[in-house]
Amino acid sequence: MAKELDFLTKRSEDYSRWYNELVVKADLAEQSDVRGCMVIKPYGYAIWEKMQRLLDDRFKETGVQNAYFPLLIPKSFLSREAEHVEGFAKECAVVTHYRLKTNETHDGVVVDPAAKLEEELIIRPTSETIIWNTFKNWIHSYRDLPLVVNQWCNVMRWEMRTRLFLRTSEFLWQEGHTAHATREEAEDRAKMMLKVYADFAEQVMAVPVVQGVKSETERFAGALDTYTIEAMMQDGKALQSGTSHFLGQNFGKAFNVTFTDEQNQPQYAWATSWGVSTRLMGALIMTHSDDNGLVLPPRLAPTQVVIVPIYKNDEQLQKVNAAVNPIVEQLRGMGISVKYDNADNRRPGFKFADYELKGVPVRLVLGARDLENGTVEVMRRDTLEKETRQLEGIADYVRTLLDDIQQNIYQKAKAYRDARIYECDNYDDFKARVKNGGFFLCHWDGTAETEAKIKEDTQATIRCVPFGFEQTPGTDMVSGKPAVARVLIARSY
Amino acid sequence: MAKELDFLTKRSEDYSRWYNELVVKADLAEQSDVRGCMVIKPYGYAIWEKMQRLLDDRFKETGVQNAYFPLLIPKSFLSREAEHVEGFAKECAVVTHYRLKTNETHDGVVVDPAAKLEEELIIRPTSETIIWNTFKNWIHSYRDLPLVVNQWCNVMRWEMRTRLFLRTSEFLWQEGHTAHATREEAEDRAKMMLKVYADFAEQVMAVPVVQGVKSETERFAGALDTYTIEAMMQDGKALQSGTSHFLGQNFGKAFNVTFTDEQNQPQYAWATSWGVSTRLMGALIMTHSDDNGLVLPPRLAPTQVVIVPIYKNDEQLQKVNAAVNPIVEQLRGMGISVKYDNADNRRPGFKFADYELKGVPVRLVLGARDLENGTVEVMRRDTLEKETRQLEGIADYVRTLLDDIQQNIYQKAKAYRDARIYECDNYDDFKARVKNGGFFLCHWDGTAETEAKIKEDTQATIRCVPFGFEQTPGTDMVSGKPAVARVLIARSY
Predict the structure, then answer these.
(1) Is residue B291 within 8 Å of residue B359, measured between CB atoms?
(2) Contact residues, B window 87-126, toward A, CB-based 8 Å cutoff
């Protein structure tokens, strides 16, 4: 066993390397031959699909409708909203031609210079511009509002340094875009979607998050307010896991989206946008997994239970099969996904290590002696604890155990994180400690200068002004100026 | 009523215009400001989502796993497979740069010439090349096979003439890609997926299809065999609705994907690919809909039942509400999607016309007199027949009615199509009649010359050599040469 598990770098040795290895070895994703773009492998995609489905259900409960908008955006659209273009134009894939032709030596293809576009097209880095250009035709009266639209799609931002799931040039995400008749309604929607993200992260992914609002510097390009959920990874760094933006009337004005209100007066529409991406996969992996591999919350595990038989000969295997089949049926009847791995091409020890690596939440092992005793060995992946149980009633037990694992890994992650949230009032102390990770709650004078100095000195950034935390005024630890509140500061991914 | 329905061009007047108007007026899709790219609106996307979900379930029953591969493909990959590059390189969106910069007058952005890519990237027109380049790393031994992978994604082919859903530069689809150890297994998979498509078209979309195999001329670029399902639209034209390709070892050889077989010998892997796209939306719309608007099969209708109250005052409305609410609950309990439209901003006549336009399969209307009599008016969208039923037991009746509508529209479409399939042995006769639509079963000598002549003379093409049809040898109607079988010839979309 030991040998088979040894191949993954330990978190304590090199956390970053552990992550990179785990993503590849657990068959979640890999680098493609296209710079910065990943291939999401079937096992990784199966987890993403579950996340999509469960998030989408939650969106629809709040009245969201899905739609689809073009991949390509005319270059000029980007320039319409002044801040937006600054934020996104600099890292775009640009389509300039629409045809290739055979080369002169007839052994390859070259770009056909005759097929040059009049206006270049950008692969969407985010779709506010093309969607608000479309909303213009959909919105005329207050009766057309609110418009609450979402799309699941791919987007592209040309990143210089990429890491699987955490930062890739192409990634998958959902982007919600809404239009409202009033400022208040738009602000409420932006906050509502933050809550949807936070609930999803905590209840489904079992990832505890801090909710808050970004500083002006860290806002989305074109937003008046950016709300965020911030998760803590096991190295104490923050991972921004979802954002929801109140965009004011910026895009309404940029794309001339007006409606007549109940008093028959023209008004610009109010906007929000909000998104989560395949980056959530990174949060999921880094929050729970250990030196043996993935630890998956049962609600997202493609296989929730694996059953492995131990046998010496075909006769024994037949007996184990006969005992296991009704259990498989019972579990499936409860809506639990089960794999019975009685293939004979791998030794049990190899199977054990592989399912641990893949993060299957519960493992049942049945051998000849178990059959005699009417027992089964149960292992839970989160704690690696084994116990021997009676076969009788095992399906009900497994169901309860899955719920317990879901709760346990959330509580474990929360305890880990809570132990690393520090109030800090001294900048020297902060500088010494922040490099070791953790969330620091510090008074901030609200200036971009202070923010920039912290970042320059320590690489840490203001992650957000956190919600749900009792605030008292104080003194900025850097400038010594008065500060109305503490902000959350951390190094981040 | 008449007035409200008059706004849609009649099919008999101009079928093509009727389709274009219907897609837009029923809120399914619209042209975007990006040439050839559509916006799929929420109502259209809700239908597509149902199609996706039901197809995906069927895929998974056959062992398909979803994954995701990069949007962009290095230009050189396209040249690896000789036929493939001919088929696809000529209509590709080409990414040449990865950055924009502010222009000299500071009022817009321009392509940054410093950010030119060393090798241009193509937006995938289909993904055989990048996927087989990836498979190379996944396949080593016969134990790694078969590999049965699918992705749901967007693709792009630069089309000169576009029509919503039927032909757009960007479209959504699924593309399955499989690798096998033997020729036979790959051929079986290609045929299996054709059957999945045919069953889906007929049982879910209620669209009857002819299954068959393409002529060499009409094959997918790089395939040894292309299987197809062909549906007949109401104008008698064929719509190719899904294809499944047996690719032989072409991509295995082009990307050097080998495995060691059970005798430890190296072999090239055998391939299939298969796809259906948002084009299916066009097939769905054109097969069933009428001059009043969409007709949707209940299994794909986002709203299966709409209930409209008729009332003169609030007191009456309250009474209708009280009678309707338990019916809504009962129907929802049966898994039926119901909308109770008691909004007071539109007259009932307008609501009726709108739900007919949107193709809601069943409409229930309740007024004050119905309450007195314990009755309800039921209208079925497919035949527009109205009847008055007892309220008692109405939910059970509606459930049965939905099944009946699903069957009826399939039978209706099948009868319509079957009456327009002609055996034809005379080329003059064929030329005179084919312009009026219909599927012609004609003996073909198997030559590309005859095929080209038919196309040139009539714009009609060989859609396929149809399966499930008793073949007898005969004489080619064009060349007079001997022919082993009849092929299906039609004008097409």
Answers:
(1) no
(2) 89-102, 107-109, 111, 120-123
Domain map (residue ranges) of chain B: 15-71+136-288, 305-413, 421-490
* Closest residue in chain A to residue B75, using alpha carbons only: A109
Say yes or no: do domains A305-416 and A421-490 share a fold. no
Question: Is the Cβ–Cβ distance between A127 and A77 less than 8 Å?
Answer: no
Cβ neighbours for B47, distance < 8 A, ≥ 6 positions apart: B28, B281, B284, B296, B300, B301, B302
Of A48, A65, A96, the CB nearest to B96: A96
pLDDT given at position A6:
57
CA distance A153 to A376: 44
Q: In the CATH hierarchy, which fold is given to the domain comprising A305-416?
A: Rossmann fold (3.40.50)
Give A117's contacts (C-beta < 8 A, 6+ positions apart): A95, A96, A97, A98
* Contact call for B73 and A34, based on CB within 8 A: yes
A38 interaction partners in chain B (CB closer than 8 Å): 70
Please state the φ and ψ torsions of residue A242, each to the nearest 5 degrees.
Answer: -175, 145
- Taking an 8 Å cut-off on Cβ atoms, the answer to whether B158 and A99 are in contact is yes
User: Which of the four pLDDT bands, split at 50, 70 and 90, describes residue A89?
Assistant: confident
Measured CA to CA, the distance from residue A341 to residue A344 in angstroms comes to 9
Contacts of A108 in chain B (CB under 8 A): 76, 79
pTM: 0.96
Pick A15-71+129-216+226-288's CATH classification: 3.30.420.40, 3.30.930.10, 3.40.109.40, 3.40.50.300. 3.30.930.10
pLDDT, averaged across chain B: 95
B38 in A contact zone (CB under 8 Å): yes
The CA-atom distances, in angstroms, between B489 and each of B13, B216, B217, B415, B432 are 25, 14, 14, 19, 14
What confidence category does residue A2 fall into, taking pLDDT thresholds of 50, 70 and 90?
very low
Side-chain-facing half-sphere of B101: CA atoms under 13 Å: 7
Is the predicted pLDDT of residue B6 greater than 60, yes or no? no
pLDDT at position B85 over 70: yes
Identify the CATH class of A421-490. Answer: alpha beta
* pLDDT band, very low/low/confident/very high, at B91 (cuts 50, 70, 90): confident
A67 neighbourhood in chain B, CB within 8 Å: 39-42, 45
Residue B400 has pLDDT above 80, yes or no: yes
Number of Cβ pairs < 8 A linking chain A and chain B: 186
Q: Which CATH architecture has domain B15-71+136-288?
A: 2-Layer Sandwich (3.30)
Tokens of A435: 């490099």
Predicted confidence band at B407 (pLDDT cuts at 50, 70, 90)?
A: very high
Q: What is the pLDDT of residues A449-460, one digit of tens each?
A: 999 999 999 999
Fold of B305-413: Rossmann fold (3.40.50)
